[in-house]
Write a structure and sequence with these properties.
single chain; 421 residues; alpha+beta; five-stranded mixed sheet; 18% strand
């Protein structure tokens, strides 16, 4: 059988720990997969930022991208690769560029998701432009900010329409706090969103291809304490709602890797932040859940590379809107959206592929996460983030959380099967 090599590129920013895990586990697994008439092996390297020709030619079959959302040249190189070279990339670069939090709220509200009441407020200040003064005098209307606050209701959150990483997010409990937060927003264009007061559960659903992990979340904690380690904190039905919600959002926008924040109140999950197509993936933030992320990332990248999964160059919203127009309860609509999502992600094919081919990858991952090489990768990340006197403490803490994951998730065949999905 012909031997072929599929090339996986890692397009990275300040990513330290997970690329080491990805590269070393892939190498340790020594995969040689019989796919069709070929025996497929895999090579992995980090993508350089450099000049490129607008001509066909790209050495990679798949690129795991962490730069498109802020590094313009890398985004444009990826677009070229998709358009000219049939490159498969996480995530659709045009979608990442165009569909910020505002657009994602509008689209998912149109599908019936219970998004909290939200409105957009004109900017407090504007960057100078030639026609700005005339335009504002002619068309900008005075508005009563306090009245808007009363209309939305308190508590509320004033937050950038396209933000991330909690930048510029302010909780306001009355008109005075709203006015102060708006005055401080300067040139940022803001949403005002009603808070989900009285919620009893805050979760993040992290999706990589068809694989979703629902994590209990506490936004009041420092970064290393937000992703909680507790499992079994909601019913299977509630977990399915969040899995379906995550898959629906991700496939609607063409995102392979994205996270969805939601608050549960009176049994209903309200998505509040879900345009995150480059979410937390470093051991210092997701710690206990980091092995799941790395292995899921590897499995999806290998599947896409081995099967030459085609990249969707365009987005097709019509099937989702057709369901939205039906006279159905929301949960039935959500299940129908998720069915489309699983079909678009080839979920059944992926699960069959993983069961047949990826045992060596999972074995290599389990060994690596228990090794000194894992501890070294953790320490490198911690040393880059923490003051010198805290490096030993937090390196040991995060490594132990990784070991706890291994103990919790690989204690039985059933657990191992669950962990890989």
């Amino acid at each position: 059988m012909p031997a072929v090599t599929r090339n996986i590129g890692l397009s990275l920013g300040a990513d330290i720990c997970w690329p080491l895990a990805f590269e070393q586990i892939l190498a340790d697994s020594k995969l040689a997969l019989k796919v069709g008439k070929d025996v497929v092996s895999f090579a992995c390297e980090r993508v350089a930022i450099q000049p490129f020709d607008l001509q066909p030619g790209c050495k990679y079959d798949v690129v795991v991208d962490r730069l498109t959302h802020w590094m313009t040249i890398q985004r444009e190189w990826i677009k070229k690769g998709v358009l000219m070279d049939d490159l498969y990339v996480y995530n659709n670069p045009w979608s990442v560029q165009s569909y910020e939090k505002h657009s994602s709220y509008c689209a998912m509200a149109a599908l019936g998701m219970p998004i909290p009441p939200t409105l957009m407020v004109p900017q407090k200040h504007y960057e100078p432009k030639a026609d700005l003064e005339y335009t504002l005098k002619a068309y900008a209307k005075l508005f009563d900010l306090a009245a808007l606050g009363e209309r939305i209701g308190y508590p509320a959150f004033l937050k950038p329409f396209d933000g991330g990483g909690w930048k510029g997010v302010t909780k306001v409990d009355d008109a005075g706090e709203l006015g102060a937060a708006y005055d401080a927003s300067e040139t940022m264009l803001m949403h005002l969103q009603r808070g989900v007061d009285g919620f009893d559960l805050f979760v993040r659903a992290i999706g990589i291809g068809p694989q979703v992990r629902v994590v209990k979340y506490d936004a009041s904690q420092p970064l290393h304490g937000r992703y909680l380690t507790e499992r079994g904190f909601c019913s299977a039905a509630d977990e399915q709602v969040m899995v379906d919600t995550c898959l629906t959002i991700n496939t609607f926008f063409g995102w392979d890797f994205n996270s969805v924040e939601a608050l549960r109140r009176d049994g209903v999950f309200h998505p509040i932040d879900f345009a995150n197509p480059c979410p937390d993936n470093q051991v210092n933030s997701i710690h206990y859940h980091w092995p799941w992320y790395v292995l899921s990332n590897l499995q999806w990248a290998v599947f896409c590379a081995a099967t030459k999964r085609p990249m969707r160059k365009t987005l097709d919203f019509a099937p989702y809107y057709a369901i939205a127009k039906k006279d159905l309860p929301y949960r039935e609509k959500l299940a129908a959206y998720a069915k489309i999502a699983r079909e678009r992600l080839d979920a059944a094919k992926f699960e069959e592929f993983a069961d047949k081919h990826l045992g060596p990858l999972r074995d290599a991952a389990r060994s690596w996460f228990a090794s000194e090489r894992c501890l070294d990768a953790v320490r490198r990340k911690v040393a880059n983030m923490y003051p010198a006197h805290e490096v030993d403490e937090f390196s040991a803490r995060f490594f132990e959380q990784v070991q706890q994951y291994l103990r919790d998730e690989f204690t039985s065949p059933a657990k191992a099967a669950e962990a890989r999905r």
